[in-house]
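Anyone up for a design puzzle?
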């Protein structure tokens, strides 16, 4: 009897899972229910931007991913692991870093000390030389105290610090806030360079003009929900809607 041969399955390349996938995320500050169902994802190597008005829940979303919001529910998957109940420590060790809006520079320490402080969470963190290559200004300001730095220098130092840790998934909360146009442009170049070096970036921005120079995709956050999303290539078709959402 002839041997029965199984038909071979056609070779289908599975679609890569997103690096970060957030589904029905809800979050509370004490009794205040702030996030009511946040859904979005970020693919490897993308720059994804959360847009929305003041108080919409953008920062709370980043803090929820970082595990620094007391009460949260839903699903947050990072590299295919559910991290909704993980400690912020463990989340950091998985390679997620958060650069807060207030930047968190130690005022009494100088630039070098600020750079040497962050713990290494994984191998591959940038060396001081690599940091200075990315931010030449910081090298010139090495012995300046945190308080003496300009807003732009503080922002660069804040980004530099998270790059020291070895994290490859960066969450930047309004990095351009309060900065002069020429500095905003530098931050834009930095983000583009990090993307070209394989970092994945989740950005929160009020400055839509800036976001449009770096983002691959956008999500709109309103009243604790993601209400819309589109790719940068669909931007012009969505401009009217966007103005309505953002009230600009
Ligand atoms: N620590 C807190 N305790 C209680 N409520 C808070 C706290 N932080 C933020 N909120 C409230 O949560 C809501 C969402 O705030 P969140 O900071 O996430 O907004 P956002 O979209 O980042 O706004 P912005 O653009 O102003 O930074 C707001 O109503 C805010 O007042
Ligand atoms: Mg915010």
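Challenge accepted. My sequence:
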């Amino acid at each position: 009897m002839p041997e029965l041969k199984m038909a071979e399955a056609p070779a289908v390349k599975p679609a890569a899972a997103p690096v970060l996938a957030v589904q029905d995320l809800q979050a509370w500050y004490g009794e205040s229910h702030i996030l009511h169902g946040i859904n979005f994802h970020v693919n490897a190597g993308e720059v994804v931007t959360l847009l929305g008005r003041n108080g919409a829940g953008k920062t709370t979303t980043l803090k929820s991913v970082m595990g620094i919001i007391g009460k949260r529910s839903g699903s947050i998957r990072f590299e295919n692991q559910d991290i909704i109940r993980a400690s912020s420590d463990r989340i950091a060790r998985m390679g997620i870093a958060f650069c807060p809006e207030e930047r968190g520079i130690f005022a009494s320490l100088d630039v070098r000390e600020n750079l040497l402080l962050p713990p290494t969470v994984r191998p591959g963190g940038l060396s001081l030389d690599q940091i200075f290559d990315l931010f030449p200004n910081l090298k010139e300001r090495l012995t300046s105290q945190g308080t003496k730095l300009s807003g732009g220098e503080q922002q660069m130092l804040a980004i530099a610090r998270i790059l020291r840790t070895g994290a490859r998934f960066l969450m930047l909360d309004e990095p351009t806030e309060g900065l002069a146009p020429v500095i905003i442009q530098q931050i834009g170049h930095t983000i583009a360079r990090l993307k070209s070096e394989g970092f994945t970036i989740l950005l929160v921005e009020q400055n839509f003009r800036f976001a449009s120079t770096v983002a691959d995709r956008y999500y709109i956050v309103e009243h604790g929900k993601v209400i819309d999303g589109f790719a940068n290539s669909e931007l012009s078709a969505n401009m009217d809607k966007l103005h309505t959402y953002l009230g600009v």
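A detail worth pointing out: Residues 58-59, 101, 173 surround magnesium ion (ligand 2) (CB under 6 Å).
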